[in-house]
Amino acid sequence: MNYLDEYYNHYDEESRLLSRHGQVEYLTTMKYIHACIDGTDDPQILEVGAGTGRYSVTLAKEGYQVTAVELIAHNLEVLKSKLDGSEPIQALQGNALDLSMLPESYYDLTMLLGPMYHLYTREDKLKALSEAIRVTKPGGNILVAYCMNEATIISFVFQKNNLQYATERNLITPDWHCASEPSELFDLVRTEEIADLDAEFHVERIKLIATDGATNYMKETIDAMDDDTFGKWMDYHFAICERQDLIGAAHHTLDILRKN
């Protein structure tokens, strides 16, 4: 069993997205998913790296035609357990680096909401993007989520007092970039690295979104909010989540592309 299997066999990703602080990332992502498919008749939606189905199952239960591809067998089992058989969804085990089982230029919306977290080389990131773009219709959208470098330096290295752990394992470069590797599970990027990947393809960036903004810096505060205060926090978050001067410090971003 590899590091990724081991992690997702024991980590409850569903609970994270259902927590109040996790809802910020979820609600923001869903807002922009719906914006991408609004006005499209019977859109075909693909999620690559669908996890336990938090997005795919929700969209299928809303009546959208969904194809969900997930690498980890445990996650796929959890996803399927949420279905009653009436949802217009096809769930497949597969790898973001090889979507050859899927047709070219077919999907109105293709989502990579997890794979980029666990791809450690530029070559693999480009391959995953290439496959996602290949199966998307011209004019269709590709949504790509990333974990960000600065939030990890601030929160994990300093706030959680892991500086010694990180330096002893050579996990921080001289310019304060996390040198991720498979045993650390997550690959961290900066906004300029995302732009550099996009530049390799015939795509147009529509928006780059901070899906959680400042939320994960203050999880306990967010989780303790009453409904009215949380509603105001979401209003504030939506007002600033597209501000490019703030995006690099978020824990998660969403790159919204259009295939030319």
Summarize the structure.
The chain is built from twelve helices and eight strands. With 260 residues, it is of the alpha/beta class.
Strand content: 15-25%
Structural class: alpha/beta
> What is the average per-residue confidence, as pLDDT, rounded to a whole number?
93
Number of helices: 12
The CATH class is identified as Alpha Beta
Rg (C-alpha, Å): 18 Å
CATH topology, anyone? Rossmann fold
Secondary-structure map:
Layout: H1 3-10, H2 13-18, H3 20-37, E1 44-48, H4 56-61, E2 65-70, H5 73-81, E3 89-93, E4 107-112, H6 122-134, E5 136-148, H7 149-159, H8 163-168, E6 188-189, H9 191-198, E7 203-210, H10 219-223, H11 227-240, H12 244-247, E8 252-259
Parallel strand pairs: 1-2, 1-4, 2-3, 4-5, 5-6
Antiparallel strand pairs: 5-8, 7-8
Question: Could you walk me through the main structural features you see in this protein, from its secondary elements to its overall organization?
Answer:
- The protein is of the alpha/beta class.
- The protein has a single domain (3-144, 190-259), classed as Vaccinia Virus protein VP39 (Rossmann fold).
- Helices cover 42% and strands 20% of the residues.
- The mean pLDDT is 93.
